[in-house]
Amino acid sequence: MAKIRTIRPIESISGKLKKKDQVGFALRKATKNNFTVTRDDWSMKYTDPAKAQAARVRGAKFKSVAQAVPERLQNPTYRTMDEQGFHNQTKYSTLRGYVFRKCWDAYED
Question: Which of 17, 21, 12, 15 is nearest to 39 (CA)?
């Protein structure tokens, strides 16, 4: 463990200098010693690739459905069907939310 000696105006350094740095700086309050902490790639948080892929797929699905909702609301034939269906249900408080759910269910990969 390395020790850091700072100049008089600086009492302590805390954190990393850049986000990608592997070295962090901290002050131990009990002993008032500055110290460094190094982190290697193995100690970083592990992300399951399957979960990351599923999140990307959901993000792509959300994006395409969000783009389809205004198009469906502007189409007069779908608009009348959606308004009738919206008035016959109580789950969704807005027409846009109701149409979003309809498009979400209709989405195919």
Answer: 21
Kindly report the pTM of this predicted structure: 0.54
CA gap 80, 77 in Å, rounded: 6
**Model pLDDT for residues 38-81, shown as the tens digit of each residue:** 766 544 566 778 888 888 888 999 999 999 999 999 999 999 99
Q: What is the CA radius of gyration of the chain?
A: 27
What residues does 25 pair with on adjacent strands?
Answer: 15, 36
Helix (H) or strand (E) holding 103: helix 95-106
With CA atoms as reference, report the closest residue to 70 among 81, 61, 60, 79. Answer: 79
| Percent helix, percent strand, percent coil in the chain, to nearest 5 | 50, 15, 40
